[in-house]
């Protein structure tokens, strides 16, 4: 078997499509364990999934077929990927807020494998701010969302909300399983967020970097088996699970943290946006308005990525970012050469769906072989595409 898939079916009319998904996953060589909520059994009988998966279906949290183990923990421990399809608004809300009151949600809390959620519901339910906020929470935690399609819905409406096609969900599962261990044994160093350069005890120079892209990369690398060190500037994000986080404030502090971790790193991904300049002199008291307009003299900060490029080992993979206005790809090509990098991720921060603070990004991957433009996608998906390319570059170096 190519992987152990836990398929959780919840109580929506789209549950009938889950039978097709179960069949498709088994045909592709995966071992499938089906969990169902009580409401899901009102739409499709457990016997259907048992016949398709060749495993008993688990519905009752208190049904313990093996006295030597706790069912939801044992299933969670075996899972290579945990798939919820369809995911109702109710279950999405429970997942977002850590509620565990049935077999599906209890197992979900115990799972450490990647989680794939395929929402399905009425168009207005999907658009409700509470549902959208819950989806945002799940996405931020690293849950992989398979967006619903548009078309006629069982409720009589036409619009967005129908469960994604089983083939599309199965393709996502396949991609997740293909990536699950490809960074095992790798030590990945990631920087994220802005840096802050103090003018006085109150004011500072910085930028609008949210750190979301770097955190997504760190989270994705850890999920793919890497040992990850994340050097983070000041951001308002929860640290990714399983990642060592080193918090810094200034560019100088970030440089020292990177220098400490770089020799052990197999891969360095510089996704931070450190300040390019700092005040030549930091005032030790607040400059008051009545003191007049201060003369602010600036000096350049250390170029962290260039410094690492100068001291890199031949087997290390170095990745930089070119967040620009105008022509980011041209800037990326120049940075690739000048800083001795293997890959530069170019993005126009003025483009729709990109820029600091956005949950999505539009990037072009630039390496010595050429350019790979990517469409607008969630930053977690961008992170995986970047890591796919990094894995390819690393295989080439080690071959």
TrEMBL record:
GO CC terms of this entry: phosphopantothenoylcysteine decarboxylase complex
Active site, UniProt feature: 155
Cofactor comment text: Binds 1 FMN per subunit.
SUPFAM superfamilies: CoaB-like, Homo-oligomeric flavin-containing Cys decarboxylases, HFCD
GO aspect biological process, one term: pantothenate catabolic process
InterPro entries (alphabetical): CoaB-like_sf, CoaBC, DNA/pantothenate-metab_flavo_C, Flavin_trans-like, Flavoprotein
Catalytic activity, EC: 4.1.1.36, 6.3.2.5
Superkingdom: Bacteria
Region (Phosphopantothenate--cysteine ligase): 188-399
Record-level Gene Ontology MF annotations: FMN binding; metal ion binding; phosphopantothenate--cysteine ligase activity; phosphopantothenoylcysteine decarboxylase activity
Reaction catalysed by this enzyme: N-[(R)-4-phosphopantothenoyl]-L-cysteine + H(+) = (R)-4'-phosphopantetheine + CO2; (R)-4'-phosphopantothenate + L-cysteine + CTP = N-[(R)-4-phosphopantothenoyl]-L-cysteine + CMP + diphosphate + H(+)
Record key words, sorted: Decarboxylase, Flavoprotein, FMN, Ligase, Lyase, Magnesium, Metal-binding, Multifunctional enzyme
Domain Flavoprotein: start-end pairs: 5-173
Limits of the DNA/pantothenate metabolism flavoprotein C-terminal domain: 184-392
Region spans: Phosphopantothenoylcysteine decarboxylase: 1-187
Family: In the N-terminal section; belongs to the HFCD (homo-oligomeric flavin containing Cys decarboxylase) superfamily.
Annotated HAMAP family: CoaBC (MF_02225)
Functional note: Catalyzes two sequential steps in the biosynthesis of coenzyme A. In the first step cysteine is conjugated to 4'-phosphopantothenate to form 4-phosphopantothenoylcysteine. In the second step the latter compound is decarboxylated to form 4'-phosphopantotheine. Catalyzes two steps in the biosynthesis of coenzyme A. In the first step cysteine is conjugated to 4'-phosphopantothenate to form 4-phosphopantothenoylcysteine, in the latter compound is decarboxylated to form 4'-phosphopantotheine.
Protein name: Coenzyme A biosynthesis bifunctional protein CoaBC
